[in-house]
Design the sequence.
């Protein structure tokens, strides 16, 4: 009696004995080894490539003979001739086991391959998308057994892929008969698996074996911008990224003004729904064009957005979100189709997943941040701040996670700032003010040079110097505070008091001139007392929200601050802390997570299990409602000072010494009126 | 120790002991007694009315005291004052058990009440529709527990009705928030249960307690006409019936000409789909108007139709149904929504159920006939013939059921008949020919008088005598055969040969004049040799189909023939048999089932279990494909004679003696040419 050959797979280490003649793919499947195949072992797809190893393997206790696998067969020879097989590789479905063998599964042959998400944190996304391609061979129709083409396709999926419960939307049904005939009863189908029911939807069908990639969109639907990543659903790689302005801006700059528009104008909500859906269609076309793909190959989309955007996207009147108790029509995650959402640019049967909302003010975008940043898995206490038009905050660690939203308004995005503009070429994004001369120097988007570097004028000739963006205004205000141009109460001193002619009178207050391009036909870019007030309101709201969560968590400090959002990626930790936007922590403990909401969307697009995860996670997050919490007002008022009226910032003090100035004592007009009158 | 009171329900006989103070409704629910309630026991809906019985019940071994139930309470008093409670009745949710009691549940308080379907067969439909109303009280939103309104509604359904897995389409989501607020967080919801998954869909929501009936449509979508019944989903009663011509007729009279239209004209299938959907919308509006209801209260529709109509309804190109192997795109039953089908007149979230097709030629209409007539439950061997533009046949008994379709063409409907018209006032529907005088008398639709009755002219003045309908032409041909005007080969004799001047020459053949209204400005209604040929083709196809099924079943006779279809209701058994349309059986064994397909649709609408039943039944039916069966041609040729060339009709011979005539021997032109040449 001889024993069957031993088959050992690396890197998994899985092993088992199989009869001589067993295809490697069959052995891998029986052992649960992660070896890909789209054609089901027919030698068509070449996804099951493996690398056999020969010789002695003391570690595994085997010797692998040169003829441990069957010789190359005709299928492998043809494949090699036509498409080229990497040296040393075999097709797992063709090569059969002859004697003990060690087989390596290269990364690109693994279904659940890992995609490095970002270098900074080395976090990975494991590819296990809801939508996958399957090659099937369907029985031809037979008058004596008159089942429908769909029923025979379903039978093929059951027999060849062990997939049951497949439903086909009417739009796909229309293609079914011609495609099956065109492909000679062979077809590649895209199936979407529902993460709850495990049922499948037939999203599309292609004749014969079709390995053209299929794609998903991860869409971050913000109040101001709509940003999308086009992801290859097999590899997880981003094929293209694009953004578009949210056209709802014409109905209102911020969320509450859009809710008001819906309240005041009959059908206004539907107008806004139409507008945003059209924008998503445009974005879909743009991104497909950029990646040079057929938009009908976009078979899935995942949306993250705040609650008002959420309701307007799915076509619900957001009016209840504008008044206490801020009731969502629905808070759970939603699975829809592009047709139901009226999105016409992607595949007509594309499957849409919208992440769950956490509360009436804390949306699916915050859920996506939670999915990406995983505060509930953090050992230390982390405060995650997603700064957009509204700010969402998450505070937590392994024991508990809290969330709230804070009405910062759009000042941090450069809106409602006198020289403000969105982050685009020509916008001032970095600024430094010399504490002695009080002279500024700055950088604009589009050039790496500082304004006092040689060649700056030349480098910025194309873009000009057009305004100041969100991160620029934060740096400007913080630098003004550090240079003694601004006092702790937020008052800009006069030229006389500050010793710089750049502090010019403007009515009864002062403004600081950063750049005067009038002589050259350009703008005059200043920071006005009004700008300071807008930033103060925004940062007070943000800080008060953080404090409210800290109260609820019963802590006085946090261990770590993560700044999320495109904006968070661009602001300097030091400046944010000088401004008192965030609680005092060691500077190195302030991290940027980039567009964490967008990353969360990509995770949910790439991994079906992440959908169940986040749906469970949001139920474990404790929501804190800022609007009804009396302490919020108190925290807000105390946070008005720069950096803060009562909280000490010991870590900040270790790095920066803020000038002790007070421009209010000298009766500098009405700008600081509130404080003056209170003290007077 | 005392034992709890005994509660006995009639007519079910269910009994159990319950603590003093238990509401009767609670006892009924715990025992599984079929006692209705929409409001869940809140004393609002009054559906749970019961009749207590008092005194001695030797059969049950109990004595019921006068105070066996609690006294009338305020809820019952108010209900009686406002709406009136039938004497002796109590509200089951208010009356509580005090001592042993016998309680009768009247029929109208049963959920699963039986609706008498038709007097003829005394078959019942048990009401258990997929869509039902439920009253719920929903928790108000709370900022500290910020779930969505939908999630709280679902929780209420789970807590108050033990219903889980409820999904809401976006169109209903839009109503959710305003309706819940309007009803003060009380609402009546219409839920549709999927008969496979048991999941529910929220079809509509109404503020507060709303007992306005909700409806379903049972639609028989025929090639020529679309017929609908509007059924109250609670009572099962038909509130209105209506019909409309199928506007696809303008693309082709019969099915194959419509398939041809789709093949020859790009987008032709979509044109036909639009046309039929518009007609269904119009029919929906008509029927709602007739019943004086809001069409948005139509929450469900069930469709039965042949395969070509099926594909055109759901928007699929029927081209494959026009050529072997007649592959259906899908054969299984379908569950859709009115929005998916583009039906705009009923509720936007109305749930559509389409019965399964049996084969490429045997559609959901035939499945509906099987559901209604249940050949698979028959003790004797029954042949069911559904005569429409095509004929579908079912042959079976408890052991086995066979099905086929036979291409009769539209002659039986009066189409392609020289004086033919559809069954409408003025059409000749009955005819008798005196075998001695060869003189006809007839009746037209709209009058009960015969043409030789006094007052006939007066009675038909309004309608006129306009043509001859399907049942009329069958009687005419059979009567001509019985009167010796027509020979067994189907040749009309000349005036000389038949002895009546009503046999007039028409070219080289003859026609029989039934009515000549030319002098009065009316039509001249005749039966031409061409008409005879059309009827012969149709009846040969029908008979050949039946014989093919009998061959497959290995029988020479059947026990019983059921004629289904509106047409089947109007033709006389004797005439059908003289013609040789159906196999020879005793005349009393020929039964009419009326519109059995429409009845099948009503059954599927009224009883959710019937959907699973028919889906299982169709898989057990053996399909026989007439088009590829060589014996079909042989049977067809033999069936060309009237009644038949080879089969004896012993039962018919016992009633009718057909004249032995042969008009072919005398060389009567080309009309009988085929036979003549073969014999010559």
Sequence:
């Amino acid at each position: 009696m001889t024993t069957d050959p031993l088959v050992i797979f690396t890197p998994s280490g899985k092993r088992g004995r199989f009869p001589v003649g067993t295809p490697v793919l069959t052995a891998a499947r029986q052992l649960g080894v992660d070896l890909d195949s789209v054609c089901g072992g027919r030698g068509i797809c070449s996804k099951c490539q493996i690398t056999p190893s020969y010789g002695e393997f003391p570690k595994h206790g085997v010797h692998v003979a040169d003829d441990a696998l069957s010789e190359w067969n005709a299928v492998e020879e043809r494949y090699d001739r036509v498409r080229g097989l990497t040296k040393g590789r075999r097709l797992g479905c063709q090569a059969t086991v002859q004697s003990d063998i060690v087989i390596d599964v290269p990364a690109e042959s693994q279904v659940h391959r890992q995609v490095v998400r970002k270098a900074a944190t080395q976090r990975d996304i494991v590819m296990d998308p809801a939508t996958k391609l399957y090659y099937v061979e369907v029985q031809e129709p037979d008058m004596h057994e008159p089942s429908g083409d769909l029923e025979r396709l379903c039978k093929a999926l059951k027999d060849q892929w062990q997939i049951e419960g497949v439903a086909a939307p009417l739009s796909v049904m229309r293609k079914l008969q011609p495609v099956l005939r065109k492909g000679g009863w062979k077809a590649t189908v895209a199936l979407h698996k529902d993460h709850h029911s495990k049922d499948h939807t037939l999203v599309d069908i292609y004749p014969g074996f079709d390995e053209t990639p299929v794609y998903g969109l991860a869409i971050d639907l913000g109040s101001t911008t709509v940003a999308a990543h086009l992801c290859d659903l097999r590899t997880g790689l981003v094929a293209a990224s694009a953004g578009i302005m949210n056209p709802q801006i014409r109905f209102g700059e911020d969320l509450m003004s859009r809710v008001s528009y819906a309240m005041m104008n009959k059908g206004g909500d539907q107008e806004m729904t139409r507008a945003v859906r059209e924008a998503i269609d445009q974005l879909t076309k743009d991104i497909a064009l950029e990646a040079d793909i057929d938009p009908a190959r976009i078979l899935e989309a995942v949306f993250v957005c705040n609650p008002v955007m959420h309701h307007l996207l799915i076509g619900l009147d957001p009016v209840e979100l504008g008044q206490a108790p801020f009731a969502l029509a629905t808070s759970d995650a939603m699975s829809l189709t592009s047709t139901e959402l009226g999105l016409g640019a992607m595949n007509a049967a594309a499957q849409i997943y919208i992440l769950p909302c956490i509360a009436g003010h804390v949306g699916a975008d915050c859920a996506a941040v939670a999915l990406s940043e995983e505060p509930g898995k953090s050992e230390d206490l982390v405060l995650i701040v997603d700064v957009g038009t509204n700010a969402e905050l998450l505070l937590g660690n392994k024991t508990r996670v809290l969330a709230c939203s804070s009405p910062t308004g759009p000042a941090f995005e450069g809106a409602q700032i006198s020289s403000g503009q969105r982050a685009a070429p020509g916008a001032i994004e970095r600024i430094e003010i010399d504490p002695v001369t009080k002279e500024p120097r700055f950088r604009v988007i589009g050039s790496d040079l500082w304004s006092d570097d040689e060649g700056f004028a030349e480098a910025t000739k194309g873009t000009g110097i057009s305004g100041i963006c969100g991160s620029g205004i934060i740096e400007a205000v913080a630098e003004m505070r550090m240079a003694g141009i601004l006092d702790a109460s937020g008052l800009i001193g006069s030229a006389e008091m500050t010793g710089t002619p750049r502090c010019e009178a403007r009515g009864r207050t002062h403004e600081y001139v950063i750049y005067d391009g009038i002589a050259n036909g350009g703008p005059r870019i200043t920071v006005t007392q009004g700008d300071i007030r807008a930033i103060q309101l925004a940062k007070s709201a943000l800080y008060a929200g953080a404090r409210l969560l800290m109260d609820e968590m019963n802590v006085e400090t946090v261990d770590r601050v993560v700044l999320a959002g495109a904006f968070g990626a661009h602001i300097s930790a030091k400046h944010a802390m000088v401004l008192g936007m965030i609680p005092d922590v060691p500077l190195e403990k302030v991290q940027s997570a980039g567009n964490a909401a967008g990353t969360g969307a990509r995770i949910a697009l790439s991994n079906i299990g992440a959908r169940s995860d986040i749906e469970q996670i949001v139920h474990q997050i404790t929501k804190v409602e800022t609007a009804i919490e009396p302490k919020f007002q108190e925290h807000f008022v105390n946070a008005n000072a720069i950096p803060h009226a009562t909280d000490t910032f010991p870590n900040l003090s270790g790095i920066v010494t803020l000038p002790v100035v007070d421009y209010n004592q000298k009766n500098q007009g009405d700008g600081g009126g509130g404080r003056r009158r209170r003290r007077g």
About this structure: Chain B touches chain A through 46 residues (CB under 8 Å). The CA atoms of residues 9 and 103 of chain B lie 5 Å apart.
